[in-house]
Design goal:
This protein is an alpha/beta fold. It contains 7 helices and 7 strands. It is rod-shaped, with a radius of gyration of 35 Å.
Length: 210
């Protein structure tokens, strides 16, 4: 089951903040709010939103600086950021925001249709990345389990020199070991001793003096 996509809207204009939040809620998103850069950072660290809609001009710090802090923090790098500007900006200013790690840039006023389309695009990308990341974690866990299993397994391979008469086996140092000793050195096998039917018959004959 997929989790609700969580969007943090950061804007110091209360009207824009409420209008944007209402639009997102109507589109089915879980919405968080912040009015300053510091409040934005605190909310990101506490709630880990999937997407941050971040006004470029905030009362305490620029949205570009907040974006850079979010993207440079290893614990927050899972959040996508769309920078939102209330004035027309140059391509160089947009490039600065993108260089800070922003995943998108919008200039107000923006149509509701375009705004929601951008958010939905970010959601698709974010969910795809999360799915790939989860698959990678599962693969790494499987690989670790296989490596651990391989470390616990000893196998006998190649030509084993065994005496045709006494059944002892010659080890790499030239010593002749009993079969159970050799197997104990080269495998995880344990032994329980008993008599096969043929040997039991021979033993019983010997005990009877036959």
């Amino acid at each position: 089951m997929t989790h609700a996509f969580k969007v943090l809207v950061t804007d110091d204009d209360p009207i824009v903040l409420e209008l944007t939040s209402s639009l997102l809620r109507q589109a089915g998103y879980e919405v968080l709010q912040a009015t300053t850069g510091q409040e934005c950072l605190e909310t990101v660290r506490t709630h880990h939103p999937d997407l941050i809609i971040l006004d470029v001009m905030l009362p305490d710090v620029t949205g570009t600086d907040i974006c850079r802090k979010v993207k440079n923090d290893p614990g927050l790098q899972g959040s996508f950021v769309i920078l939102l500007s209330g004035v027309h900006i140059s391509s160089n200013q947009q490039a600065e925001g993108l260089s800070a790690g922003a995943d998108g840039y919008l200039v107000k006023p923006v149509s509701r249709k375009e705004f929601i389309a951008r958010v939905q695009a970010m959601e698709r990308i974010k969910r795809a990345e999360d799915a790939l990341r989860e698959t990678k974690k599962e693969q790494e866990a499987t690989i670790q389990e296989l490596r651990k299993a391989l470390e616990e397994i000893k196998t006998l391979r190649g030509l084993i020199p065994i005496c045709a008469w006494c059944k002892r086996i010659r080890d790499d140092a030239g010593y002749w070991d009993e079969l159970e000793v050799y197997l104990g050195k080269h495998s995880e096998a344990t032994f329980s001793h008993g008599l096969c039917p043929r040997c039991r018959e021979e033993v019983e004959k010997g005990m009877k003096g036959e």
